[in-house]
Amino acid sequence: MSAQTQGASTAPARSRSRLGTWFDHHVYSLVASVGRMLRKPWATALTIGVMAVAIALPLGLWAALGNVERFTGTVQESRQISLFLKTDVAVARARALTEELRGRSDVAAIELRTPEQGMEELRRSSGLGDAISAVDGNPLPSLLIVSPKGDETLLADSLSHLPEVDVVQHDAAWRQRLDSWLRFGIRLAWVLGVLLGLGALLVVGNTVRLDIQSRREEITVLQQLGATDGFIRRPFLYLGASYGVVAGALALALLTAAEHALRAPLHDLARSYGSQFSLQGFDLPYAVAITVASGLLGWLGAGFVTGHHLRQNRPTA
Q1: Which of 24, 69, 99, 144 has its CA 20 to 30 A from that of 257?
Q2: Residue pair 141/87 in contact by the 8 Å Cβ criterion
Q3: How confident is the model at residue 315 (pLDDT cuts 50, 70, 90)?
């Protein structure tokens, strides 16, 4: 066999060997980081607990805002305009008016509720079915529910001049207050998320810094032997990521426990208002995203501290 053939056959082997070594070190770094966490259970529990609370607070506020929006109705629903037609307007004319308004450029959607539908809904929701059935005739008018496409105030003013319309119900002030509160809550959740996320990052960084200090001599020996910064940094990165992943999972567990504690009394409260509302937590994709983001947060904190240490303690030639 020629030298060229031998060189060609050993090149892939060396490549596989380097790849295997790289993979083995990643696995070793991950296992070693988990082992260091388990060897210090009290310190690990404190670090993970602080991180979990810092992650859970903005997530809990975000989930609460989402449930409040579901309970009170979406902003689009709160913009809806209710048109109560005059009682002498026939259902056929109400349907024709519905089609006319549906063609307007400032109307996004429109729904017609006939007097019969209104009476049936009243009978179901009020609990006075027998008393309502005893009433002669149907005193309810036709109702048009209009969803605006643009400025709902201008649309409501325009619709109030229709000859078939008796009453226009549109609480613009309530809608604006709801919208403002929701925007404020979302902004507050973002601010808390950034501040508490920074706090969690600092907690991980300080924990990793203490671990670096305890292994200072080992790091110095590795640097003198020619180990790269990536090789030295890798175990600490996995340590920070492990803290983050476990803290994210614990934060989700805390929020799930809070949801279960509040679900029954809130369901009873909603049922007293004739609503079937129930709390909605984080589904699986969101839970996975939160856990991954928490791990990335821990990875970044560990990387920042480790990189700073390596830059400040490079061996002199």
Answers
A1: 69
A2: yes
A3: low
pLDDT cut 90: percent of the chain above it: 4
First to last CA, the chain: 44
Give the tens place of pLDDT for each residue, 76-86.
Answer: 555 678 888 88
The per-residue pLDDT for range 240-260, each reduced to its tens digit, is: 888 889 999 999 999 888 888
In a domain, 172, yes or no: no
Structural domain contains residue 222: yes
How many of the other CB atoms lie within 10 Å of CB of 190? 13
**b (16+ CB within 10 A) / e for 57-96:** bbbbbbbbbbbebeeeeeeeebbbbebbbeeebeeeebee
Q: Same structural domain for residues 116 and 253?
A: no
Q: Which of 267, 307, 245 is nearest to 47 (CA)?
A: 245
Asked if 220 contacts 313 with a C-beta cutoff of 8 angstroms, the reply is: yes
The verdict on 53 and 110 lying in the same domain is no
